[in-house]
Amino acid sequence: MNPLTDVLIRLELGMTGYAWQAYALYPNGEVPIPNTSERSTEFNIGYGGSGPAALAESILRFFYGKPGGNPERYQAFKWEHIATLSPRVDQHIIPKEAIARYAPEKGEEEQEY
């Protein structure tokens, strides 16, 4: 688990879609958020498949250890913040306040997805 901060997402158009790189924005610099998912890092904008799922899962795991105690929280984060990224912009910021809304509740049992 890492201290909560804003997240920068960079998108790069590849052969089959967009590839993502995510960074935690700390005062002393950017810290890469690794892909901790078994899923692909490529995705098409507006699509809720494996690429957006990998990015959403990796961000929540970076800050909370696991994506949260229930699949609805993880899926909601994906649909609200990841699947809606604009392809017209190559960098996106997700504020820490938005990420904090998806923190596991105290005492909530962790599940793998």
Q: What helical percentage do the residues reach?
A: 25-40%
Mean pLDDT: 82
Structural class: alpha+beta
Number of domains: 1
Q: Care to count the β-strands? A: 5
Q: Helical segment tally? A: 3
**Order of secondary-structure elements:** EEEEHHEH
CA-CA gap between termini: 18 Å
Uncertain segments are none
Based on the structure, what is the oligomeric state of the protein chains?
Answer: single chain
Q: Characterize the largest beta sheet: strand count, sense, and whether it forms a barrel.
A: 5 strands, antiparallel
Instruction: Tell me the Rg in angstroms.
Output: 13 Å
Overall body shape: globular
Percent range for β-strand residues:
15-25%
Could you please describe the fold and organization of this structure?
With 113 residues, the chain is of the alpha+beta class. It has one domain (7-89). The protein contains 3 helices and 5 strands. The chain has helices at residues 50-64, 71-82, 96-100, and strands spanning 7-13, 18-26, 29-33, 42-43, 91-94. Strands 1, 2, 3, 4 and 5 form a 5-stranded antiparallel sheet that branches. Helix 1 packs across helix 2 (71-82). The chain is globular. The two termini are 18 Å apart. 29% of the residues are buried. The mean pLDDT is 82.
